[in-house]
Amino acid sequence: MSRSKFHAPILFVLLALAVAITPAYSTTITTYSSLASWQAAASGISTIDFTSTAVGTTGGTLTVGGVQFMGYTSNGTSESVYNTTGFSYGDFGTGNALYTIIAGTTLPYIHIVLPSAVTAAGMNLWTRSSAGLSFTVTVAGTPFTVATNSAPASGVGTPTYFGVTSDTPFTTIDLSLPAWNTNIGTYQFVDNVSYGSAAATDTPEAATCLLIGSGLIGLVLLRRRLSRNKPEAPPIPDGPLALA
């Protein structure tokens, strides 16, 4: 077999292997509905709980523990820290929390800027006046609809937990509430904002698979070529061997 005829099948096989095991690039985000499951999938966790932030603290950009929080509404109202304890219609048992309020025609949202790129984040979410509304949470350009729990008739409510891990680092998270025209006066709350790194997995990367696969194929084809080019042994003559 000529060299060109030998190289052609190798190149074809390697190309086919690369196409087969190299996926199209896309961000993979896994969501979590409990703190325990998210913590099991993350490491190096930092948490902002607003405990040491004075109630009533507000501003266009509020920085707590290196994390920036920016709240936006149509009438210029920015985010603020609020003590939720003791309100039968809004007590979700977290004490101080960050909120912004629907006060006009522009959807309110909270824009969170993390101090560095991360691959894991989570938080508690809830609303009041009305309670039980759904957030739109946008992480790494991907929006998620997160339903929150209604406030109990009495006692303390249960915040909704929402966490993510991502194979693509991100630095911002956006929280917003839809349907402003039917929810004027609604407060959206966020608390216990945590971030860190997604736990490493043992899944081999596509490039590693390609190197291993191409190496094995190359060895097989090389062995076949050597066996074809190996000179044949001379035939054994018939009859008794001549004595020296």
Could you describe the 3D structure shown?
This protein is α+β, with helices and mostly antiparallel strands. It has two domains: 3-22 and 202-218, no CATH class; 42-198, Sandwich (Jelly Rolls), CATH 2.60.120.430. It contains three helices and eleven strands. Strands 1, 2, 3, 4, 5, 6, 7, 8, 9, 10 and 11 form an eleven-stranded antiparallel β-sheet that branches. Helix 1 runs antiparallel to helix 3 (206-229). The radius of gyration is 31 Å and the shape is elongated. The two termini are 41 Å apart. The relative contact order is 0.20.
Summarize the structure.
This protein has helices at residues 3-21, 35-40, 206-229; strands at residues 29-32, 42-48, 62-64, 67-72, 80-83, 96-101, 109-128, 134-139, 142-147, 160-176, 187-198.
